[in-house]
Amino acid sequence: MSERPAKLTAVTWVLAAPMPPAILENRLCRNAPLDWFYPAKGSFPIGKEICGKCSVVDDCLEFALVNEIRFGIWGGKNDLQRKQIMKARLLDERRNE
Questions:
Q1: Which of 55, 30, 29, 45 is CA-nearest to residue 80?
Q2: CA dist 85 → 24, 39, 82 (Å)
Q3: Which residue of 10, 72, 76, 97 pairs with 51 in a disulfide if CB–CB is 3.0 to 4.6 A?
Q4: Do residues 69 and 6 lie in contact, with contact meaning Cβ atoms separated by under 8 Å?
């Protein structure tokens, strides 16, 4: 098992899809340590506090949802919260068909 390089931030580590410039330029997490957004199980992620003050939190969350990012804190939500959002959206779409 390989270790993560220490200098990577949350955004540089996990992205497979390019993040829109508006998010990249305005995000508060740009220099935050990776483990703030990928906390140990059961601990409170410091990243959620940063997201709560960020001007692009909604865009970041939508980016994570659209790109099916499954790990970490994105847009102030953890993976379980994002799954719940996607499930609710799917149910709404089915109701509206």
A1: 45
A2: 23, 21, 5
A3: 76
A4: no
> pLDDT tens digits for 3-55?
444 444 444 445 556 888 888 889 999 889 888 888 887 777 788 999 999 99
Other CB atoms within 10 Å distance of the CB of residue 3: 5
Please answer whether residues 36 and 47 qualify as being in contact, where contact means their C-beta atoms are separated by less than 8 angstroms: yes
Can you give the pLDDT at residue 14?
52
E strand map for the chain: none
Distances (CA, A) of 89 to 33, 53, 75, 95: 31, 25, 17, 10
Q: Is 30 in contact with 11 (CB distance < 8 Å)?
A: yes
